[in-house]
Write a structure and sequence with these properties.
Strand content: 15-25%
Mean pLDDT: 90
Number of helices: 2
Distance between the termini: 12 Å
Order of helices and strands: HEEEH
Structural class: alpha+beta
Strand order of the largest sheet: 1-2-3
Shape: elongated
Radius of gyration: 20 Å
Low-confidence stretches: none
Length: 96
Amino acid sequence: MPYIKGILDEEKSRLENKKEHYEKRLESLPKGSIVYKKINDKKYPYLVFRENKKVVTKYISKNELNAVLEQLEDRKRVKEALKNINENLKYLSKIK
């Protein structure tokens, strides 16, 4: 039985390390979504997000657009991974 407890402790430690890593990564990624505004019959991309209850709109140049889109997708994947890690940590705490 002590072997199982050791394995569970190792898994919990591994999940906590991954959680910390993903939380740091999440801070570095942009939040929000891309919105296109039409000005003089041309579409311009903007990143829209909330900051302290205010809606912030930032223009994104065409050179940056693909990178920002990839970062937003990466943010979604990281948030999903964090959700799974939190569920697994909750499950592990119930087992102990």
